[in-house]
């Protein structure tokens, strides 16, 4: 409800001409709102003697580096490069500061939080390339950073999880661990059980059908096309019969046990005789791109992925992407762990502390810390 009221306020300010959607002012207000919800203060957290926090740039990309104070001076430290969520369009490394502090402090891992450029001003592949650049800098300059090049993890949530999975496809042999949290991993089929089961609950949340505008931002498309994606009208009848659609087949990759409404899973059936051909021609290249939809990567590529920790939540309309990714990696004998929180919601990981502290947020962050300690 808090998020819904925030978006109502933003809509009102936009209609009055006070701000523009996805402008610097819009994004700053969004950051302040999230920080207030998660810490109680719009300016976030103060000084922490247990961490050395540095704002800098790596390959011209702004980052925040968190170093546990007790590790300063050491040369072979584990490191997590993290990509924040926000639909490639909102939020920032500053907004994620409280979460990154907590993860670095409790795991004793150096964290590099990437402030990649945002859409629609910088559509695909710009945000992804910013993240690639930082990861490659860390891998190639580990001695300078005082980290161990064999203990590099990457991770992110939502859109950040998408980019973490994409980067692992290219740097699979150099990454020790990936954290793929509440990720969007495919843009082919939006009529999933996760969407159909949760759409009524989530209409007034940040994880609502309206968030498809974030995808159109990323793909440099008019937001008017967002609804076309939502009803799968962005794919042609021929494409719906292709190997790409088969790669996100829920009957094959979505176990029934994760679907609350059992007859929904049993009655999965996709009509394949429709589609907006004009829109399909605009997006065909994107639909076939594994760096946008890691779930459709070929088996040979997926087989080479590092240990993959996947987190999903029951009340999330992109719930199924992470679960299907886990099932596909298991099938290919990739080491993977799925942490599924049936009672969780899309951005629950933001609430392990602060005025809206939730048990589910505490649990999610504790599990992430456990994985970093045990696997990195």
Note the topology.
Elements: H1 2-15, H2 24-39, E1 51-58, E2 61-68, E3 77-83, H3 97-107, E4 110-114, H4 126-140, H5 142-145, E5 147-157, H6 159-170, E6 177-181, H7 193-202, H8 212-218, H9 226-230, H10 243-246, H11 250-253, H12 262-266, H13 277-287, H14 299-303, E7 307-315, H15 319-331, E8 336-345, H16 359-375
Parallel strand pairs: 3-4, 3-5, 5-6, 6-7, 7-8
Antiparallel strand pairs: 1-2, 2-4
Helix pairs in contact: 3-16, 4-6
Could you list some keywords that capture this structure?
Rossmann fold; 16 helices; disordered N terminus; hydrolase activity; AB_hydrolase_3; eight-stranded mixed beta sheet; 376 residues; alpha/beta; globular
Task: Write up what this structure looks like.
The structure is a single chain. With 376 residues, the protein is of the alpha/beta class. It has one domain: 3-Layer(aba) Sandwich (Rossmann fold). The protein contains 16 helices and 8 strands. It has helices at residues 2-15, 24-39, 97-107, 126-140, 142-145, 159-170, 193-202, 212-218, 226-230, 243-246, 250-253, 262-266, 277-287, 299-303, 319-331, 359-375, and strands spanning 51-58, 61-68, 77-83, 110-114, 147-157, 177-181, 307-315, 336-345. An 8-stranded mixed beta sheet has the order 1-2-4-3-5-6-7-8, with helices on both faces. Strand 7 (307-315), helix 15 and strand 8 (336-345) form a beta-alpha-beta unit. Helix 3 (97-107) packs across helix 16 (359-375) and helix 4 packs across helix 6. The relative contact order is 0.13. The model is unreliable at 1-6 (pLDDT under 50).
